Amino acid sequence: MSSILKKAAVVSIPNVRQALLRSNPVLASSLLAKRAYNSKNGVEMTVRDALNSALEEEMTADEKIYLLGEEVGQYNGAYKVSKGLLDKFGPKRVIDTPITESGFCGLAVGSAFAGLKPVCEFMTWNFAMQAIDQIVNSAAKTHYMSGGNVNCPITFRGPNGAAAGVAAQHSQCFAAWYGSVPGLKVVSPWNSEDAKGLLKAAIRDPNPVVVLENELMYGVSFPMSEAALSKDFVVEIGKAKIEKAGTDITIVAHSRSVGFALEAAMLLEKEGICSAEVINLRSIRPLDTETIINSVKKTNRLVTVEGGWPQYGVGSEICAQIMESEAFDHLDAPVVRVTGADVPTPYAQNLEAYAFPDTEVIARVIKRTMNKKIGA
Amino acid sequence: MYARVSVRALARSIPSKAIKTTPAPLAYSAKAFSTSALSMDSHKKKERVKVHFPGALDSHFSQVLEIREKMEPIDTFRVMDTDGKVLDKSLEPEVTEEFATKIYKDMLTLNVMDLILYEAQRQGRISFYMTNAGEEAYIGSAAALDPEDEIFGQYREAGTLLYRGFTLDQFMNQCYSNDMDLGKGRQMPVHYGSKALHFQTISSPLATQLPQASGAAYAIKRSGKKNCVMCYFGEGAASEGDFHAALNIAATTSCPVIFFCRNNGFAISTPANEQYKGDGIASRGVGYGMHTIRVDGNDVWAVYKATQEARKIAVEQHKPVLIEAMTYRVGHHSTSDDSSAYRSKKEVEDWKRHDNPMVRMRKWLESKGWWDEARENAHKSTQRTAVLKSFAAAEKRKKPAVSEMFNDVYDKLTPNLIEQKKELEELIKKYPAHYDTSNYAKEN
Q: What NCBIfam families is this protein classified in (chain A) (predicted)?
């Protein structure tokens, strides 16, 4: 676990905005547009605040729920996600732990076995590797191995995947690793509504759930519907959302990549090239293959987008499942995966930008796929 | 991992003007020269000045350059000698005949069950087994617990389950992974679990149960119940990172948990003197700021009394306690091990003869007139018959229903599991010759 990260977290937010705007002029304009958009037609909320409300609402409703992790209490959270919670609920419900992922994760798992409902925060999912045995061998497998006698109603959460300028040991995406484990549910929110609804669903779910947030999204604002602001708003785990309907090609993405995919789709629609349907996975496990299959049957083309590594990744799994399903007969072109580069994340800003897919890369791949035709 | 700044650069950056002579340390206040009884002594030696650093508030400054290798070794508490004689009359156990003989009878039953199941594995009837030979005295610790104290074991504490009332049938059913197994046939033999008896299902990865025990203890503290958690592990598992994480977090989070280390001298073939260089596991407890005791693990009454005291501390003060029980593993690590590969048979025989937990307890019972040869033979014989009976019954039973394979991955089946289950059902129906399910219990 690194304390360099604390500094990066504070510094990264303005830097991230600059980096985003520099590399994505289209996104920049739409972001700016969103920010200039006031509450004329509703409330706007950052992903961070959405997570904070989810935690606060659930902890108010059920006193068995408690939060633990490094810096979650007095510091208000390394990324301020747990701001104000220690003040409201006290040290019995919000616990600052020593630096020991295996220790506090194990403690959380044990307390879940004994009837509490912990929310275990990892400063980033990279550090959770030091506790992965507790997550996989204990939390995920115990209900099964105990013959259904021991329950583990735990929620693991924290930022996952790309950050900005924090190099390889702070930037790995764990969607594929945890997504492969039976016994775990894995969700990956993109916007504020996803974040609030999925975290609430995860906390209420009696199974162990992995919530993969994204640091770069914490400060981004999104409009929140009336329904999303309610205390009982949950997003169903295992169901994807069609963010933008389209007819010519299906783009499936999760987390931050959804934003880039939408940008690429809007860009190509404006240029008159194609009408893309963008699916926000929301859940990595269970995977909503039904929504993807139905979309492919309509559009006949599929591109997957993720920030994680290509080998054995989320896109690989979607390809395999689509190929094994009836959707295979509807494909007019091979499925293509857009993924992070197959390297440990570089530190230098220019190299880091090349290591993750952005709007331009996705648009290029969509165009290429649109030009393909099986048999031609 | 802080950013490394060159010390020279740091020194250079401090202007010499800024360094002024520090004023006399705060300790040289009127208090230091009080005429209390304590300081009468210190007039003779130089006054000890307390440290103010937030990380070591109990320390004192010293002008002695001493890099210590060891502290005073921790004593091993015992009640009886190897002949079962109580060494200090004030420690004579105040227990009823029923209570004391139950412990010994369970030790005997455990022995009998171990022998038969070990042989069963050798004959290929069960896949795996681990015996408790030489360590039976740990049952004394179970006797000091409340039935609702949660137990997290490692794998060599079946005696605690036996003490709490797990039946021979239940033991056998788990070892045979049949349809009556509480674990539904999903675990290796000896990975017992019982919700009713507050015994957490055994988990194979070593030491993962330690931080979990801290967590369960935290949950108990939150609930207000006057219970604690008992967590067993071996001296080898204490090398794992989880051990250190667990003890530190139990101490800092104030969890009512007793960490009971069975130091039996071996971790498969690794002897204790290669497992660690310090003064056993007990020295670590003190290091983590918790109450610690080392006991003679072959002495039922020492183990019993230590656990009693530890339980009081845990439940009344919400503080963790470490008990290191010194013992000797007479048997092999498991059926996958042949210990003659790394120790002499003579060494094992010597231990069995000179320091035997069964013999010590038996002699104590006999000295009270509560046991004799006849009762010994009778109990062994009835237990052997009972074990063989359970064994035969368990062997005959079918395995759990095939559909159980898909249950309990989650609380409810997910769409992909429902799909797979349906596919399997159709295959079994279509090709009964290739999918023989006669050995499996019928579907519910």
A: PRK09212.1, PRK11892.1
- Measured between alpha carbons, how far is residue A88 from residues A76, A279, B72 in Å? 11, 37, 47
| Separation of alpha carbons B294 and B314, rounded Å | 17
Question: Do the Cβ atoms of A374 and A331 come closer than 8 Å?
Answer: yes
pLDDT in tens, B289-319: 999 999 999 999 999 999 999 999 999 999 9
Q: CB–CB of A107 and B253 under 8 A?
A: yes
Gap between the Cα atoms of B214 and B20, Å rounded:
48
| Binary contact (A98, B222; C-beta < 8 A) | no
Q: How many residues does the structure list for chain A?
A: 376
User: In a 10 Å sphere around its CB, with 0-12 CB exposed, 13-18 middle and 19+ buried, how is residue B301 labelled?
Assistant: buried
Q: Which two tokens stand for residue A134?
A: 């507790």
pLDDT digits (tens, 9 = 90+) for A181-233: 999 999 999 999 999 999 999 999 999 999 999 999 999 999 999 999 999 99
CB A157 within 8 A of CB A192: no
> How many alpha carbons fall within 13 Å on the CB side of residue A319?
18
Is the alpha carbon torsion for A317, A248, A332, A295 positive or negative?
positive
Cβ–Cβ contact A97 with B under 8 A: yes
Spatial distance between the Cα atoms of A53 and A229, rounded to a whole number of angstroms? 9
**pTM (global) more than 0.90:** no
Burial class of residue B442 in the structure, from the number of CB atoms within 10 Å of its CB (0-12 exposed, 13-18 middle, 19+ buried): exposed
The amino acid at A101: E
Neighbours of B185 (CB within 10 A): 20
Which run of H or of E encompasses B233? strand B229-234
Domains of chain B, each with CATH number or no CATH? 1-69 (no CATH), 89-396 (3.40.50.970), 402-444 (no CATH)
Strand partners, B94: none
Paired tokens of A129? 């590797």
Please give the backbone phi and psi of residue B214, each rounded to the nearest 5 degrees, phi first. Answer: -60, -40
